[in-house]
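[job 4471] stage=fold_predict status=RUNNING
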Amino acid sequence: MKRILITGGAGFIGSHLCKRLLNEGNYVICLDNFFTGRKRNIENLLPNPNFELVEHDIIEPIDIRVDEIYNLACPASPPHYQYDPIKTMKTSVIGIINMLELAEKYNAKILQASTSEVYGDPKVHPQTETYWGNVNPIGIRSCYDEGKRCAETLISDYRRQKNLNTKIIRIFNTYGPNMTPDDGRVVSNFILQALKGEDITVYGDGSQTRSFCYVDDLIDGIVKMMDSNLSEPVNLGNPTERTILDFAKLIIEFTGTKSKIIYKPLPSDDPTKRRPDITLAQTKLNWTPKVDINEGLKKTVAYFKELIN
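[job 4471] inference complete, writing structure tokens
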């Protein structure tokens, strides 16, 4: 039985990962400071004797004997990471240093959950792992974008200098149950607005694109990455690209709402395009997203309906 630490384990993605690794027969330690994570996401796991919840902030060191570390701790939506940008940067930088020191102490494998935001507003499309990005280092999104880029640097240097077994995944837009209602992400925003009969807010003219991956597919890719012999960054996301306006229309059709689409100014440094090149994941991990957008939205809408009722 492996002892696995998941930081940010009560968050959207982390809670699904906790469940998956528990079901595979591991001892799972969920670490979270509950800034954006919620106990509701993992309360059904608490009775399991192989599940342990530790309330802790990874900015502070911690000593837990582990075999593997999945570092998912960091607010990931613009409203959340911009709420306290200094704290966000500390979580990415000081947090990964603490986790790398822990991995070194116990010779544990460590996986860093990075993001497509390391590509910034890309001038290469779709984005491949070899693209270095186009990031504003002093903008309102920089605390997250540059924090994640710095974390990638640190984990790579620990691998080279200290011979750690490290992994980096770059997560593209992901959706599904356990999303936080107030996270400000496009999927949760649109679904909640539609279910409440409110106007659906599109920023800019809606021509900016995103690629949406269902959470179960992402979790499968994360686990495959940890079990692989890869150390270079790997994109994990769904390569099906759609405009935000088209996605808003899809949500209206899917929910049967009478909501209207309204337009507001585009936020600063909002990427105009986002689509992963997943060739590396397909060839090296044998991973390809399988969940159709209609199937994924059905489960996600049902989750939000239950949440607001």
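[job 4471] summary: Residues 33 and 57 are 5 Å apart (CA to CA).
[job 4471] exit 0
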